[in-house]
Amino acid sequence: MPGKNEIKVYLENGVYHLFNRGVEKRLIFLETIDYSVFLAYLKSYLLPQDKDNLRNMLTSASYKEKDKILKLLRLNNYYKNIDLIAYCLMPNHFHLLVKQKSADSINKFIKSLCTRYAMYFNKKYKRVGPLFQGNYKGVLVQDNEQLFYLSRYIHHQALYFQDKKLISPQPSSYPNYLGNISQKWVKPEEILSFFKTARRTSLKDILFYQSFVENNHEDYQETIAKLLLD
Predict the structure, then answer these.
(1) Which residues pair with 20 in a beta bridge?
(2) Which of the two ends of the chain, N or C, has the fewest CB atoms closer than 10 A to its terminal CB?
């Protein structure tokens, strides 16, 4: 029998919480560079690929350069099919909040991402066998309230208190929401646009996203209980 949330309902323009973790809950990121590689893969999948320019570069490229260019041209690209709304990378798992444009985009995207990263990881650490614990898990986000609280949950994973101050030791999309960085392949606009105009709502009059994420909300677990994948 399939595990919880291993069977997905794929909808055009659907928003999904995706999750995968290491086999036997083992670490999938051992060094800082591993996080960087995973993020670089996300970037390469989600930014537009200038194939015409790459093809033009082939005419004057050296043998080694041509090999790199050809590999880039063969890479999958999901710029037109996937929007990454939020992410967080933890030592033994990751969370992605994505919107797909066509009904089969997510399945292709996440399988390609996990396969590519597992190949990198196994080669680097001289290991064999699966890196991730079975199939990725995913669940459809049903409404805006679930969307907002799920983004809070994902970003809150990266935060903890140190000397009474919140710090973010884990890579996440949260700095994009605060305006501290701008990763062009992360799309926070849909969520942030609500918080710029919000008034009295079911989110208890929270007007700013940072306050929403970092303040305590005891009732939000009930809202997103069905969206948590573990």
Answers:
(1) 94
(2) N
Could you report the per-residue pLDDT of 136-154, keeping only the tens digit for each? Answer: 999 999 888 889 989 999 9
CATH, domain 15-227, list 3.30.70.1290, 3.40.250.10, 3.40.50.720, 3.30.428.10:
3.30.70.1290
Q: Residue 138 and residue 111: Cα distance in Å, rounded?
A: 12
**Using CA atoms, how far apart are residues 177 and 74, in angstroms rounded to an integer?**
32
Its pTM stands at 0.83
In terms of Cα–Cα distance, which of 25, 34, 3 is closest to 135? 3
Which residues have CB under 8 Å from 151's CB, separation 6+? 85, 86, 97, 191, 213
Structure-derived torsion over alpha carbons of residues 94, 208, 181, 165, reported in degrees to the nearest 10:
-70
- Spatial separation of the C-alpha atoms in residues 191 and 99, rounded to whole Å: 12
Q: Are the C-beta atoms of 113 and 41 separated by less than 8 Å?
A: yes
Locus of tokens 């809202």: 223
Taken as a whole, the chain contains a residue count of 230
Question: Could you report how far apart the first and last alpha carbons of the chain are, in Å?
Answer: 16
Q: Look at residue 20 in the predicted model and tell me its pLDDT.
A: 95
- How is the chain split into domains, by residue range? 15-227
Angle, nearest 10°, between helix axes 32-46 and 105-125? Answer: 150
* Alpha-carbon Rg for the chain in angstroms: 19
